[in-house]
Amino acid sequence: MLLTHQQEPWPEFQLPGGGVDPGEDPIPALQREIIEETGYTTTRPRRLGAFRRFTYMPEYDLWAEKLCVIYIARPAQRLGPPSEEGHTAVWMPVAAAARELAVDGDRHFVRQLFGVPLYSKRMPLRSS
């Protein structure tokens, strides 16, 4: 599964994505954000669902309610490294992504889509 690792404001694994710019449609916004955060183009996006979350947005110094819409798409072509500073493209097994994604809603959709069992606690990627 293709994820992005965002270094700031705190290190975390995320599903690639982000905001829709004024006048932009959701699918082109999704594709733009995936390229910026991973360097990959995608094909065949399909909406899976949505959830709301409250989060601190340090770039604006405020707490906000965000509507997160989840899509699945196929990575197609690597154009190069991510153009968004602080992001790294990461390929991770689905079961590991279901544990390591920072956002509860993201983990929920990965578990639901791929039938990954719910874990009672977050487990490390590798044992020591």
Tell me the layout of helices and strands:
Layout lengths: L1 E5 L5 E3 L11 H13 L1 E18 L4 E17 L8 E5 L2 H7 L3 H11 L14
Antiparallel strand pairs: 1-2, 1-5, 3-4
Helix pairs in contact: 2-3
How many DSSP E strands? 5
- The assigned structural class equals alpha+beta
Low-pLDDT parts are none
Query: What is the mean pLDDT?
Result: 91
Q: How would the global form be characterised? A: globular
Physical arrangement of strands within the biggest beta sheet: 2-1-5
CATH architecture: Alpha-Beta Complex
CATH names the topology as Nucleoside Triphosphate Pyrophosphohydrolase
Account of the protein in words:
By secondary structure, the protein is an alpha+beta fold. The chain has one domain (2-114): Nucleoside Triphosphate Pyrophosphohydrolase (Alpha-Beta Complex), CATH 3.90.79. The protein is 24% helix and 38% strand. The protein is built from three helices and five strands, in the order ββαβββαα. It has helices at residues 26-38, 94-100, 104-114; strands spanning 2-6, 12-14, 40-57, 62-78, 87-91. Helix 2 runs antiparallel to helix 3. The longest helix is centred in the N-terminal third of the chain and has 13 residues, at 26-38. It is globular and about 35 Å long. The two termini are 23 Å apart. The model has no long low-confidence stretch (mean pLDDT 91).
